[in-house]
């Protein structure tokens, strides 16, 4: 009888081990990838592509929302204040600046090594009432200059970039008839960028707006940036607020827009990213914060839970969009979500108050949603 053992005294155990290992690895390859993904944070997963951010609120910064703060530190390497650095909070009375809260945001980001994006210096919305009452051109110009420069100067060296001007365009690409345009003309745009640069030469300076994937508005935004550059203002990037839906804008519109903005030779940033899953009154597009509508049951269909079918659609939509971001990651420097989790999203209250929306990657209990894994798959899948 052949001695199996004596014939293959050394080879056999080694060979068996080798074969078993190959089999184990092959069978578990899928699981291993999944497990690896679970341990990767968003910021690590996309570290070679772009920084990943979220808008944060006061509860998080003051660590009253400790789970939110933990998540911000773990998953994101850039943050944007959702509301607290807007004009009405920073300079509620003429010449009276409230820095306390903003300082806490900056401290949070510095302490946790998170890049800070200031939002925003010049915007027609969430403006202090006193500004709207100014009648003289000279006074408005001086007030605008003082606002931009006082705030920009305070955070020199602590801020990565500023949304200098927010939403200065109409849907047809013409300049929005804000009180700034009305009284100061297009000079207010050039001056705001120049004043910001003068006060904080180190910070990057951005133009930020919604519906930036629409043809006319895109043309207007490109024209606006060229006008600023021609007049000697430095613009470092364009922010595409991405308040999008499950089907709109199309992937093609998104890609075309990224390429068109990148052609300006400046950074493209996806800012304010969220995807509504709720019905849209009157097929409303964009993010005009002053538009509000009456609620009804029909407009708020998922009060208890998001159906799995919609959750799957959302995950696919996020995955498809992130595949485009990854494809053009040489042009995109940042992707920022508008909020940390579904529970704090502004889309629970806009454009209809008191709805239950599910637009982000983390649910109300701060758990990762299928949408999160959809996004992470883009990072880990080398074929995408
Ligand atoms: C929103 C905030 O998320 C809300 O909490 C607030 O009530 C209104 O403003 N475009 C912008 C953001 O540039 O500042 C807006 O943020 C959303 C649309």
Short account of what is shown:
This protein is of the alpha/beta class. The chain contains 15 helices and eight strands.
What does this molecule look like?
With 384 residues, the protein is an alpha/beta fold. It has one domain: TIM Barrel (Alpha-Beta Barrel), CATH 3.20.20.80. Helix content is 44%, strand content 14%. The protein contains 15 helices and eight strands. The protein has helices at residues 4-7, 11-39, 42-45, 58-61, 66-75, 87-90, 100-111, 129-133, 137-154, 179-184, 187-199, 215-230, 251-262, 308-327, 370-380; strands spanning 51-56, 78-81, 115-122, 161-166, 204-209, 237-244, 267-275, 332-337. It has an eight-stranded parallel β-barrel with strand order 1-2-3-4-5-6-7-8, surrounded by five helices. β6 (237-244), α13 (251-262) and β7 form a beta-alpha-beta unit. The chain is globular and about 55 Å long. The structure holds (3S,4R)-3-hydroxy-2-oxopiperidin-4-yl beta-D-xylopyranoside (XIL). (3S,4R)-3-hydroxy-2-oxopiperidin-4-yl beta-D-xylopyranoside binds next to loops.
Which fold does the CATH topology refer to?
TIM Barrel
Discrete helix count: 15
Mean pLDDT equals 91
Q: Superfamily at the CATH H level? A: Glycosidases
Biggest pleated sheet: 8 strands, parallel, barrel
Strand content: 5-15%
CATH architectural designation: Alpha-Beta Barrel
Q: What's the structural domain tally? A: 1
Number of strands: 8
Shape: globular
Strand order of the largest sheet: 1-2-3-4-5-6-7-8
Low confidence ranges: 1-37
Bound molecules: (3S,4R)-3-hydroxy-2-oxopiperidin-4-yl beta-D-xylopyranoside
CATH C-level class:
Alpha Beta
């Amino acid at each position: 009888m052949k001695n199996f053992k004596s014939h293959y005294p050394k080879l056999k155990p080694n060979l068996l081990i080798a074969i078993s290992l190959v089999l184990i690895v092959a069978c578990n390859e899928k699981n291993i990838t999944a497990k690896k993904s679970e341990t990767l944070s968003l910021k690590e997963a996309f570290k070679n592509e772009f920084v990943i951010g979220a808008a944060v609120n006061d509860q998080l910064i003051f660590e009253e929302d400790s789970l939110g703060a933990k998540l911000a530190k773990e998953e994101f390497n850039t943050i944007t204040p959702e509301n607290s650095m807007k004009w009405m909070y920073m300079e509620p009375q003429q010449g009276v600046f409230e820095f306390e809260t903003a300082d806490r945001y900056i401290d949070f980001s510095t302490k946790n090594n998170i890049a800070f994006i200031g939002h925003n210096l010049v915007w027609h919305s969430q403006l202090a009432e006193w500004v709207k009452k100014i009648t003289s051109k000279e006074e408005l110009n001086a007030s605008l200059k003082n606002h931009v420069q006082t705030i920009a100067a305070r955070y020199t060296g602590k801020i990565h970039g500023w949304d200098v001007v927010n939403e200065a365009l109409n849907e047809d690409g013409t300049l929005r008839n804000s009180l700034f345009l009305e009284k100061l003309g297009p000079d207010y745009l050039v001056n705001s960028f120049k004043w910001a640069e003068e006060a904080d030469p180190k910070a990057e300076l951005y133009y930020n707006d919604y519906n930036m994937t629409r043809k006319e508005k895109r043309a207007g935004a490109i024209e606006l940036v060229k006008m600023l550059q021609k007049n000697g203002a430095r613009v470092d990037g364009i922010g595409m607020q991405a308040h999008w839906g499950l089907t709109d804008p199309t992937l093609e519109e998104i890609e075309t827009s990224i390429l068109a903005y990148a052609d300006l030779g400046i950074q493209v940033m996806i800012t304010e990213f969220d995807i509504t899953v709720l019905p849209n009154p009157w097929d409303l597009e964009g993010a005009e914060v002053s538009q509000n509508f009456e609620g009804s049951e029909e407009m708020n269909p998922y009060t208890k839970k998001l159906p799995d079918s919609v959750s799957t659609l959302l995950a696919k939509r996020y995955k498809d969009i992130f595949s485009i971001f990854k494809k053009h990651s040489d042009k995109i420097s940042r992707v920022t979500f508008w909020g940390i989790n579904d529970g704090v999203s502004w889309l629970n209250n806009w454009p209809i108050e008191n709805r239950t929306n599910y637009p982000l990657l983390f649910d109300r209990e701060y758990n990762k949603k299928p949408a999160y894994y959809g996004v992470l798959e883009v990072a880990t899948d080398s074929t995408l």
